[in-house]
Amino acid sequence: MPDADELVADALAAVRGTDVRQAERQLDRLMVGTGAADGTAAVDVALLRRLVRGVGRLWPRGWQPVDLDRLAARRLGARSARLVRDAMAAQRRDQAAPVPAWFDEQLRDLTAEVWWDDDRGVLAGWSTREGLDRVDALRAAVDTLVLVESLPPIAVLRPPPGTTGAESVGQPARGGSGSRMLDRVRALLAKAESTTFPAEAEALTGKAQELIARHSLDEALLSIGSERTDLPGGVRLGTEPPYAGAKALLVQEVAAANRCEAVWSDDLGFATVLGWPADLVAVELLYTSLLVQATAAMLRGRAERRPGSGRRTRVWDESFLNAFALRIGERLRAATDAADREAAETAGPERLLPVLAARGAAVQERLDTLFPGVTRHRLSVRDAEGWSSGTSAADRASLDVGRGRPPKQVPGRPTRAE
Question: Which residues lie closer than 8 Å to 277 by C-beta, 6 or more apart?
Answer without folding.
Answer: 170, 171, 172, 173, 219, 233
